[in-house]
Design a protein that fits this description.
Strand content: 25-35%
Helix content: 10-25%
Radius of gyration: 23 Å
Structural class: alpha+beta
Largest sheet: 7 strands, antiparallel
Oligomer: single chain
Amino acid sequence: MKKKIIWFSGLFLLLLTPLSCSDDFDDFPQSRSVNEFIWKGLNQYYYWLQDSPDLADNRFASDDAFQNFLNAYSPPEALFEHLVVDRQTDRFSVIFSDYTALEQVLSGTQKNNGVDYELRYKNGSSTELFGWVRYILPGSDAASKNIQRGDLFYAVNGIPLTANNGVLNPNALSNDTYTLNLADYDNGNITPNGNSVALTKTAFSENPVYLKKTFTIGTKKIGYLMYNGFYSQYESELNNAFVYFASEGVTHLILDLRYNSGGSVNTATRLASMITGQFNNDIFAKQQWNYKLQAVFDAEDLLNRFTTTLGNGAGLQSLQLDKLYVLTSKRTASASELVINGLKPHINVIQIGDATTGKNVGSVTLYDSPDYRKVNVNPNHRYAMQPIVLKIANKNNFSDYVNGLQPDVNQVEDLSNLGVLGETSDPLLQTALNYVDTNGRFSIPEPEYRFEHFQDVKSIRPFGTEMYIDAIPNLK
């Protein structure tokens, strides 16, 4: 007999209704409003449930009190923001008014002009910003324009970037069309040079397998992979990279996650399985849910295990490695951090670069339907939520890296000397190659000027730095 779980229905009179003996919430009534869907969904799944007083099961003495509470918030986003805990604790829960847009973000498809950039503070300023181009997406609008990695911009549409008006209020960079006003790097100064580039966003699907190649140092065959997003529909392309590495006889692997802000937990598990292969069915990661759910979900469904198959059922290529070199930055987040943390109990992971973001929590898509999955959704609206629902730990139960995973070799990118991605002129890649060659006995170049991080193109987007699971776990 499956264990029953207790949920609160529309009336919160402490009248408990047990769940039927199925894996779906068949007895759960469809919400009467968007706000009701938001409250009920968060009341059941939100990770920080116990820290949000208005989500308590006994918060309302009657249905009228509950409805009056819901009606006090408009639009629905206002209620969502009220119910999630402070944004210093929860930086990542989001709500979408159209779940189609959310699904596109999860798949890596959204409007994009092809410029992947980061924003930093100018030297000596706490408000003035500038941007630098990390890479250009092949086949995008930017790929046909005169803009490339390492280019700097100080303004958008002629308006200088600041922490207030340039990005957040309003966000000129979120528009479909805009012009970047370019600048030169001048001994630590960002100096306008009179050049500009007009860019246009179109619907674009980003293949996250950005670069793959090999290097030979003595008897060592080194694979290099720049991987920029954990998108499940590109798992075959990811696997093909490992087929290539295997055919080349790769004995060492450098995984470049500098600009990878995360994605699917399942895809992260499969990437870890491609790197290794000798740990099939062993525990890669453990999910930790809120106090209501941890005891009633099937325990096996809360474990992510090394595997031999892709999401589509095809076999995956593994390299059987016992050591991995990972390039990271402040923008390496969520599923990228999961790969590093999840592999550490199993193999030697050498992290080169900067400390990571520090995102150890994940989300799932909640639709307004009887079981919160995309079946029998409420036809009266298209809202969906992507709240934080779990913390994720490795096999040894370690998950405390909110301040980021610290590198073994500390090296930040030097904006005056970025080099070419995938070439030995890239200082971080060269450091990793040196490490493979000399086992860490070398000196690290220090940039003359360091610029504090602000945001990047992915963190500016809603849900741009998420880690998520594909489906709600089953009940016992």
